Amino acid sequence: MENISDATKLFVDLRRHMWMAGIEMELRRLIWQIGVTGKYISAKIHESNRKLAGFENIYGEEQLALDRSSDDILRNQLKFSGFVREYASEELPDIVQIGRGDEQYSITADPLDGSSLVDTNLAIGTIIGIYKGPLCDIGENDIVAAMYITYGPLITLVYSAGKGTHEFVLNREGEYVLSEEDITLSEKGSIYSLGGLRKDWLPEHRKYVEFLEDEGYKLRYSGGFVPDINQILIKRGGIFMYPALKESAVGKLRLIFELKPMAFLIKQAGGMATDGKKDILKIKPESLDQRSPIYIGSRYEVEKAREFLTKGR
Ligand code: AHG
Ligand code: MN
Ligand code: MN
Q1: Atom of ligand 1 nearest to the CA of 127
Q2: Residue 305: phi, psi to the nearest 5?
Q3: Which residue from 221, 259, 238 is spatially nearest to 302, judged by alpha carbons?
C-alpha cells in the first residue's frame, strides 16, 4: 500500500499546492486563473493551424495574429477578475487598467513567447510577472510571483510565489498536477544556451563561451526562451545567454516581459540572473520595452560570466 505522502503527492494539484504553501487567497486565484487561460491559448495555437504561422509573407500576419489573439485571451480572462488592476504586455504599447483601480495585483505578460517556432512544432510558452499594486513603479524586488506555461508535448506550468519554484503537468482531466516540487538548481550544470549571432558577439563574451566549450558544456538552444529556460530548471543547472551585441548593447530580450519573471523563478530555485554584471531583479526599468543582456542559470556559470565580462579574463 503506498504510504500516505506518496498518495497525496499524486493528487496535489495547483490549487491545493498553493493553499498548502500558505499563499494568500487572491494570489492563489490569480495564478489559477492564468493557468486556466493557458488552456485557452493552447487551444488557439491548435486551431490556428500552426502551418499558417511563422511564414515571412502574408502568413506573417497569421503569426502576428497568434501573438495578438493570445494577448486578447489573457487580457479578457483577467479583465474585471476582481484581482488584477493593471496589465502590461509585449503586444501592447502601454500599460492598461483592466480593473476598477483598487485591486491588489498587476500583471506583465509575454502572451506567446517563441511564436515564430509554431510552424516547426517546437515548444513555445507564456511568461507572466505578478506585481503588488500598479506597474508604474516597478522597481527593486517588487515582483511577488512569476510563472510560465509551456505548450509542448505536454502542457506544463511552473510558478513561484516566493516559496520555491514548482512544476505542474496538465493531465487529461484538465487538472494541473504537481510533478516537480521545490526545484533546486545544482551549483553547476552541463548545458549552455547561446543567443545572438557569433559574428556579433563582443570579445569578452566570446572568450566566456570558449571557456564553457573547453569545459565540455553541451549546446541546447531552441530559439524559444521558455523551453530553453525550462530545460535549465528541469535539468537542474546550466546557463542561458542572450548577450550584448556589437550593434545592440542591450541584446534582444525584454527586461519586464521576459527577463524579470524568469529571473524570479530561477532565483527561487537557487540560481542567478544578471545582465552580465547587475542582478536582473534589481534593474529599475526606464521604459516598458527596455531590453537587457541576460546571463541566467546556475550560480557557477553566471558568476563565471560576470568574471569574464567585468575583468575581461
Ligand atoms: P517572442 O516570440 O516573444 O518575440 O520571443 C522570442 C525570443 C525568445 O523566445 C528567444 O529566446 C529569442 O527570441 C530567440 O532569438 P533569436 O531568434 O535571435 O535566436
Ligand atoms: Mn518573448
Ligand atoms: Mn511574445
Answers
A1: 3
A2: -60, -45
A3: 238
Work out the widest C-alpha separation in the chain, in whole angstroms.
62
Mean pLDDT of the chain: 91
Q: Whole-model pTM?
A: 0.94
Q: What's the CATH class of domain 191-311?
A: alpha beta
Q: Which ligand is nearest to the CA of 294?
A: 1
Percentage of the chain beyond pLDDT 90 is 83
Could you tell me if the CB of 99 is within 6 A of ligand 1?
A: no
Which atom of ligand 1 lies at the shortest distance from residue 228's CA? 11
CB 223 less than 6 A from any atom of ligand 1: yes
What would the pLDDT profile of 95-136 be if each residue is shown by its tens digit? 999 999 999 999 999 999 998 898 899 999 999 999 998 998
pLDDT digits (tens, 9 = 90+) for 245-301: 999 999 999 999 999 999 999 999 999 999 999 999 999 999 999 999 999 999 999
Q: Are 28 and 15 in contact (CB under 8 A)?
A: yes
Domain ranges of the chain: 6-180, 191-311
Angle, CA of 294, 73 and 94, to the nearest 5°: 55
Question: Tell me, which fold does domain 6-180 have in CATH?
Answer: Fructose-1,6-Bisphosphatase; Chain A, domain 1 (3.30.540)
Backbone φ and ψ of 195, nearest 5°: -95, 165
Which residues are CB-neighbours of 193 under 8 A, at least 6 positions away? Answer: 219, 220, 221, 228, 231, 232, 238, 239, 240, 241
